[in-house]
Amino acid sequence: MNYLEYPKRLKATIEQLSREESYQSVCHRHYPDQPMPSSRVLGEIVDLLREIVFPGYYGDSPTRPASISYYIGVNVEKLYDLLRQQIYAGLCFDCHHTNREDLLQRKDRAAKITLDFIEKLPQIRHLLATDVEAAYVGDPAAQSSAEVIFCYPAIRAITNYRIAHELLQLKVPLIPRIISEMAHSETGIDIHPRASIGHHFTIDHGTGVVIGATCIIGNHVKIYQGVTLGAKSFPLDEDGNPIKGIDRHPIVEDNVIIYAQATILGRVTVGANSVIGGNVWLTTSVPPESKIIQEKYRHSGFVGGDGI
Amino acid sequence: MNYLEYPKRLKATIEQLSREESYQSVCHRHYPDQPMPSSRVLGEIVDLLREIVFPGYYGDSPTRPASISYYIGVNVEKLYDLLRQQIYAGLCFDCHHTNREDLLQRKDRAAKITLDFIEKLPQIRHLLATDVEAAYVGDPAAQSSAEVIFCYPAIRAITNYRIAHELLQLKVPLIPRIISEMAHSETGIDIHPRASIGHHFTIDHGTGVVIGATCIIGNHVKIYQGVTLGAKSFPLDEDGNPIKGIDRHPIVEDNVIIYAQATILGRVTVGANSVIGGNVWLTTSVPPESKIIQEKYRHSGFVGGDGI
Amino acid sequence: MNYLEYPKRLKATIEQLSREESYQSVCHRHYPDQPMPSSRVLGEIVDLLREIVFPGYYGDSPTRPASISYYIGVNVEKLYDLLRQQIYAGLCFDCHHTNREDLLQRKDRAAKITLDFIEKLPQIRHLLATDVEAAYVGDPAAQSSAEVIFCYPAIRAITNYRIAHELLQLKVPLIPRIISEMAHSETGIDIHPRASIGHHFTIDHGTGVVIGATCIIGNHVKIYQGVTLGAKSFPLDEDGNPIKGIDRHPIVEDNVIIYAQATILGRVTVGANSVIGGNVWLTTSVPPESKIIQEKYRHSGFVGGDGI
Amino acid sequence: MNYLEYPKRLKATIEQLSREESYQSVCHRHYPDQPMPSSRVLGEIVDLLREIVFPGYYGDSPTRPASISYYIGVNVEKLYDLLRQQIYAGLCFDCHHTNREDLLQRKDRAAKITLDFIEKLPQIRHLLATDVEAAYVGDPAAQSSAEVIFCYPAIRAITNYRIAHELLQLKVPLIPRIISEMAHSETGIDIHPRASIGHHFTIDHGTGVVIGATCIIGNHVKIYQGVTLGAKSFPLDEDGNPIKGIDRHPIVEDNVIIYAQATILGRVTVGANSVIGGNVWLTTSVPPESKIIQEKYRHSGFVGGDGI
Amino acid sequence: MNYLEYPKRLKATIEQLSREESYQSVCHRHYPDQPMPSSRVLGEIVDLLREIVFPGYYGDSPTRPASISYYIGVNVEKLYDLLRQQIYAGLCFDCHHTNREDLLQRKDRAAKITLDFIEKLPQIRHLLATDVEAAYVGDPAAQSSAEVIFCYPAIRAITNYRIAHELLQLKVPLIPRIISEMAHSETGIDIHPRASIGHHFTIDHGTGVVIGATCIIGNHVKIYQGVTLGAKSFPLDEDGNPIKGIDRHPIVEDNVIIYAQATILGRVTVGANSVIGGNVWLTTSVPPESKIIQEKYRHSGFVGGDGI
Amino acid sequence: MNYLEYPKRLKATIEQLSREESYQSVCHRHYPDQPMPSSRVLGEIVDLLREIVFPGYYGDSPTRPASISYYIGVNVEKLYDLLRQQIYAGLCFDCHHTNREDLLQRKDRAAKITLDFIEKLPQIRHLLATDVEAAYVGDPAAQSSAEVIFCYPAIRAITNYRIAHELLQLKVPLIPRIISEMAHSETGIDIHPRASIGHHFTIDHGTGVVIGATCIIGNHVKIYQGVTLGAKSFPLDEDGNPIKGIDRHPIVEDNVIIYAQATILGRVTVGANSVIGGNVWLTTSVPPESKIIQEKYRHSGFVGGDGI
Description:
The first copy, chain A, has about 300 residues and is α/β, with parallel strands linked by helices. Helices cover about 45% and strands about 10% of the residues of chain A. Chain A is built from nine helices and 15 strands.
């Protein structure tokens, strides 16, 4: 191939990729001065929140009683500034033909929501303290609750969930989802911010856990890696599209334990104090105190070195 | 222990680790001027590709129609330079006794492959647009296709797969595998670049999904987290080693849905329009329109607080 | 809302979050000069260790025989300095009322442990070489053992495990756990550093694998993604808390293969040369040479577009 | 000293530093949403401008004729966004009691000024090309004009000056000064952005050069390191403060050369084609074609090893 | 040249550079656990100090009266930790054969000095406020004292000087010198930390200013770029080495102005209210109210295009 | 102004800036695979060289005799790789119409030069040790030679000079100039790499020093800040351009001291053991043992507050 061909072929592809019919369905148009949500800044926000909620574990804040308020003061103020902008970006994400007045109103709303959210932080910290306690008490391998806070991926995932859930309650679009996907990528635990989860919640190991948007989970619930609390089917509208917003995920009552890889689908109820064994496929409700396990395995004749 | 002992003991270990018999089986020798693939640069390449394919979502490119071609132009040119070097590094990875002429030929081949790959980008973008559409239509929790592109890990994993697949078609060694492992680490979704996957493909949640090298997946297929499309057994050669390159993974026909944690192994066919329930172990073919679920669970007597 | 309200409300929340009763159960107090473990530094340590064990794959060390000892020398010395401090931080993590003499003793112990650990590196490298060999031989998709070292997440996870295991043997607190969680986050593979694992160990794909603290795994064992080797129940003490330190995870003998998503719980033994099929729930021992698979699936009548 | 004293003494100092009477005269109050100029961003802006003006020298833009417009397009668009914000920050710097309407007007003005400035770039490039030519022709040590652009600090300083001067013409406060101080710190050359300087201007070596705010410099002027074109005295107002804005620096006509360390002060004129020798102290006008040097040195009796 | 020669020749040079006789006079031996001063950390320290002294100008601290104490609190605490370590490193810099007890004593001393220094900050801020005022009042080009703080290199240099001077008073070795060299590199202004300088001190432009170790400068002094207040000769000891610690630099009394490039050497006194013209060489004392300028220049016959 | 005007006006300016007649005289064309010199990499190279020459001062290399060779080994190997590429880039800088064969020859030449340069390092270290000694002995303010190496800008500038000089001797284009400009920017000391400078050379304070390309400086010479050793006039060729390569800078013989701001121009000789006073303008030779000072100042009647 002739070297002179290169620029020509590159140029041709660039032109093709720049045609509106090529990019129009996968392109996000944002207007000047209309901020985009930023994963990097949301990462900073989550770090700040972890630092505020669990003083002395993250960041470089020492925890002398004499100085803790300086650090919390600075972190809360930084949080206020960064989060306000991201919420504003979230509020603008799908506003394609806005005028200035409208943008200013969204900006004000973002400030108000941010403040409302910050006022929830003491309560979020309180809830997370129960989750830490549950993880520590329930895991014979845990040496201390400090180790739980410092190392356990479940605490990171549940922290992000509790933050994202509160933001969603305050009607922030998009941002809660990004925050929960950040925890999903970090821990393999995927909790939809719309799910409702009680106190003393714990997840062991956690990789592959999925908790759907309309789940309701009681207090003192423990689930293991690979557990799905999902939807079984979506009622379709007259155009054949799934109807949005219908309750379609399980209700898990207080004190339930669900073992690894169990899949529970649909608006079914797992009664209080039940134990669901691993790898079970469950699409019906079970009463309180149930103990469910998979049908017993069978023996089989295999062939081949690595085969089954 | 005497402090003077430290340098002596460190030195002894360093010498032991520097002996050829210690490192020879785990050491990669690369010659001067022979480039190594770089995860960091491949990360930049994937970012550039995401930015090119989905303008306005990643990076800082605004998407005024007037300026989009500048951004695509710069990104495609940067891509050409970075990817050419990585492909060259891939082509050199296992060439241990090369001469200069041979290296130059590989360099030329890398340039040619890079250009061929770039010319596929409009088509890759088109395919990914169908995947985005499928994810949006099929998920009642999705607010917009913008949210799908911005947040859904499946889109990231499928993007990396479609890139890596195209590179493998162009006979690039190693690099496609690294690109798919990057998505695997980020999303928990492990799609072998050699697999063949139709349009409107979607994965929900996705953590733990495995799609093997010789899989053939039709159009409009949807799979959930934890699904394995794997190999059941590997025919061995006369030395007892698995024979490489044999078709050993499932064929999944159009419009199939596979629920969470199902494991489908071997060169079996899942017929069109089938639905495979969660946690199923399937090692035989099923005809079109099949609806398969796990044998019903049983009740069991448990003991202990946290036991099963 | 009045703009003057903002500072007032922020201030009030800051004060609430700074009250001892709010933070006391989730706060880590560390004293001046008492170092905190650092994830960032532990990340550097793992990178150094990978670079030392697998020369030429990570970092920028070329592998001319003439110069390899310089690189190993520098990396081992850096490792000594960084690891010593992190082990010291680990030894101090829960020492809340120490005096200076006590801190100095911990510092000396940290130095001694670090040196003992470094002297194990040749042996760790030797074991990892067997794991690489097993992965290469057992995977028809692997092109070379170089590809295995460079790309396979299992090698990263097993490397971190073998490092963390050795540190735990040397009675280092906390640090081994952080190192294994780093691999967990990166690969989805969660191996407790206390588990005992033989040579030629391999994990395919790996996302969702969990190997518990008291597991004993023989030689030439291969497991697939989503496999759990976990605890079934925890004996409780008289206060209703799980008793810590009891053997509660499976024993897997030599040459066993366990397929995707199988869940094996409790102190059961999987006899040598057995094959456990995917998605099996196994809570009893099986003799050598067993071939276990899930009960056959059943057909079911589904409704709905996306339903099951 | 007792260890308990530390927190107490730190706290006391913190309180003292936080008292309004301590900080009021050295504190900058900026209101929420009122941006501060950022040295870091202004650094990026200068880099972008250098990259736009001198394609192929800075940044990573290749200069194939086919692709240069992509790079200039992207860089100009980035410049527009970044500079607009910094100019806005400059316009807000001293507005302590603004309302929203006022801020929006400043924002619009910033956008307008930025665009006006960008339209001057072709002319700025043209002027700088004459400066490069003058430096190359006038320096026997210069190998090529490429070397001049790539290495000569004077080109960096004059580039910043020509940018800052244009911004000042457009009535941007503060930002021009920061841009000229950036060059001052990098090169030791301190040109006030208000000075007026003709084409083909060149400075050799440059460290210590000072060119005051009301200087007027003709075409084809060359000055050496350490030259000061400064003010001799400042007329005072009735309160004894210097009156601002009066012409108080020299006029240097065409084709003048001024050698190292010469100090020329006051509103004097150095006539065309003059040469001013080094280390001269000049506070009066000199006619065209003047050749001025310092009074001849004298011999002196010194004592001591290192003495004079 | 044969390619095999390269490793051999590199190895030979490495061995030569590693011989003790080659490196002994230019090598710094530091013992394990003996910290080295770090330019990077000292840079952070200077940034913190600037942020504490001038709230709202540096860093990201807003300056709402309600929150300023949080920021000062956090910055002072960070300063305490970082500076303590650097002072400790300074105290250890030349201690080649120390024992542990000795190191601990230096560590305690470092903590004590750091605290003493921090208690001087209110006073340092007060002095710097006078310097800012002097620069603003004395420069017709200055728009506001905010511009002076934000842009003027002299303020940066004098800030570093006042910090370094205080540390030297507290007998910290090495660190003050590094801090003043940092300002020297940034601004071209070289003030020895041992010099004594009164309030309302200002330097205009500043590049090339040198103020020697034993200078005594009164109040309300203003000096211009290139001014040297240096030593004329050093009395030698009997071995011919300069005697250290002798007063050898000028005394400049109150209200003196010294113009650009003046060189004043030796223990001479410039009397109060004097004005020293530029480029003057002065090695004798002058009485109060003196007005000194260089001998008048002369005219000269030049030849050549660029010549003098 | 209408908002729709913005994109239009930006686009027009971009087009203007992208026209060949606009950029042609200030644009550097570099061909694909033709490397550009990189200031960032040259910065790393200088850091490596400082670390190799002065072990224990820069970087993180400890200096236990047992381990120093590892660090020097790694640093020299890194230097070989980085410097080879930069020299190659330098050799290609002005080769606009090269073919591949030509590029390969330049690459080989770069490797050979790099190796030749590295073999000079022991000698460069030896020379720099004499410079350190001279600075320590000659400065009453210096506490130790360690302080000199760690803090004195002159050592940094002279180190860069000695490196750049050696590279120029080996006929490397451009790179030596960039290295000396890096020191110029950092220290204000501008030594042309072509100058020839003997051992025990020292510069005090240094800001503003200029040493021209054809200077010859003997041993044991000391110069102060602001000293220029420059060219007086450039003979012109018949086209009126300065003739390049002619000896045009001073010769300074052994044991000379030159005080601050002295300007010595032209191919004159300052005889051995001479002392040149500050602010002198010297354009003729002076014999050995000369003591030269500026003509005595005069008194003058000034007016105005800040005037002269």
